[in-house]
Amino acid sequence: MTVKKRKMQHHIFKMLASCLLIGAQATVASAQLFPQVQLLQDDPWCGDCCEHDLQFFAPVDFDLECQPMLKDCGWYFGYEKLSWVITGERTTIGDPTVNVQSEIYLPQTGSSLGVAPPTYQVVNSIQDAPPEADFAWGNRYEFGRQNRGSGWRISILEGPELNTQDVYGFDEISIPGTLPFITRTTNDNDTVTIIDPDNFDPSLTILLFPNGPNDVSTSINGFGSVAVNFRTPAGFLTGLRDYWVGTTSGPVIGGPGRSLLVTGSEQVEVNGVLTEAKISAAAVVTGADGLVDDLNGNGQSFFFIDLDADGTHDVGEPFGFDFNDLHTFNVFFDTVIVRNNTRTDGVELMHTFDVPNRYKMKKHQDSRLRISTGVRYFQLQDLFYFEGRGGFLGLTTMTTDVQNSIFGPQVQLQWHKQRGRFGLDVDGRFMWGFNVQDLDLDATIGQDLLPGGLNSSATGRPTATRTGRHDETFSPFVEFRADASYSITNSIKARVGYTAMFIDNITRSSRVTDWVLPNPGLLKGGQQDIFINGANFGFDVLY
């Protein structure tokens, strides 16, 4: 049996040697009979100068194995339209760590019978505000040069830019018959007539009710409907209250009496001269009856010593306040508007190198592995805007702008597979990102605040503030691409694919807004991440 096995192995070796000899002779004969085929297999498109014949619309060439002649030498340009989803953040409007009890509308006094109803904990009304995940459009441009398996490429990312907005609260109240025709005499005795509410010049503003607040009321009684809890100094939310209307049978809740603001853009006539204007009309905020509510039931809220017995408080006569009547207000806005803008931009410069595959058989040379190294810059700008109208504070706005500037070295690994006119590219990239973050916050707090006024803070006043900070952190950046292409001509390809990006240790503006009065601040940054993904489609041109 051993001798037979050795004889069989000997015959097999002879057959293999014969096949190899025949194959070598066939290769030599093919090279002698078809020298041009051998030239194409060695270097089908690239000569010493990598010239182009300017035949952009020439048909796709195929070799004797019915494989396309890959034209990867020359100048390259690609364009893709992007439709990507940018992940949002579950944003709470207000400080989630603050415990606030509801206002006491019917206080317990020494002469009360029974027990007053308990209060409840006021939570932030909006706990899922923008930014929201949604599609946005952008562009990506790539150009470079490839020659003899190596080259360089520049990629420019423009967008996408995602804008989201939500409005919270009840519908605005309208007063029938007031628009579009209003005639009003201002403090300067100018007669203002609204002509066309659709035309205006923002540079001219005429306030029909000069002493009124500039917010829109959506609550009939002015208590507001959207709760936003802030951290505040001690006593900041306390003040003199006028919710009751005094009657012979006892106090009746009438509410703070905040009236409607009528705003619009109108063409107006001032003293007979037609001009463009922005009209703001607001009623003065008054209490229920203009008198401080006697919350402790002692019959006094403001008192004085009437030295001259004339029944009125005169200059020089001692006076005082009953601070036991101070009331703690809740912050409920009539209307809340939340906006978020997220935009991405970037540029990368890469040196490319194709891993040689000449050792493979020709029919297996339809795939290619490319390694690239270089640098990348990626910018993620995130803007969060909050606007509250009406309620205890009145018009209050906060704008948080964060710019993440990420740059660093990048490596890329790309695999290409070609079948006929169809191609497939799978691409992975990683960047060691150094993130320089610029954070800015602008705020205007409490346009309606009147220190010591009725239904207002005893100490708070309208405040405009701005703060900023600069942070640095490490933000790893991972990108994945998968693209399918179709060779329309020798130089033009149509392309469609999918892109996904994940960036860690960035700052989202909505998550660093610090809800504190009267000077909002910025929380610690670099604690968030973002995932961007979606479709891209476009074309490639090789010159």
Description:
- The chain is built from three helices and 27 strands.
- By secondary structure, it is mostly beta strands.
- Among the domains are: 41 residues; 271 residues, Lipocalin.
- It has a ten-stranded antiparallel β-barrel with strand order 1-4-5-19-20-21-22-23-24-27. Strands 6-7-13-14-8 form a five-stranded mixed beta sheet, with no helix packed on it. Strands 2-3 form a two-stranded antiparallel sheet.
- Helix 1 crosses helix 2.
- It is rod-shaped.
- The protein starts with a helix and ends with a strand.
- The N terminus is likely disordered.
What's the arrangement of secondary structure elements?
Blueprint lengths: L1 H32 L1 H8 L31 E13 L13 E2 L19 E2 L11 E14 L2 E20 L13 E3 L5 E6 L8 E3 L18 E2 L10 E2 L4 E2 L6 E2 L7 E10 L2 E10 L19 E3 L14 E3 L5 E2 L3 E2 L1 E21 L11 E23 L6 E24 L2 E24 L17 E25 L4 E15 L2 H4 E2 L6 E2 L5 E15 L1
Question: What does this entry show, briefly?
Answer:
The protein is mostly beta strands and 543 residues long.
How would you classify the helix and strand content by structural class? mainly beta
User: What quaternary form is this?
Assistant: single chain
- Mean pLDDT rating: 76
CATH architecture of the domain at 80-106 and 135-169 and 334-542: Beta Barrel
**How are strands sequenced across the largest beta sheet?**
1-4-5-19-20-21-22-23-24-27
Top keywords for this entry?
543 residues, mainly beta, Lipocalin, 5-stranded mixed β-sheet, 3 helices, 8% helix, 46% strand
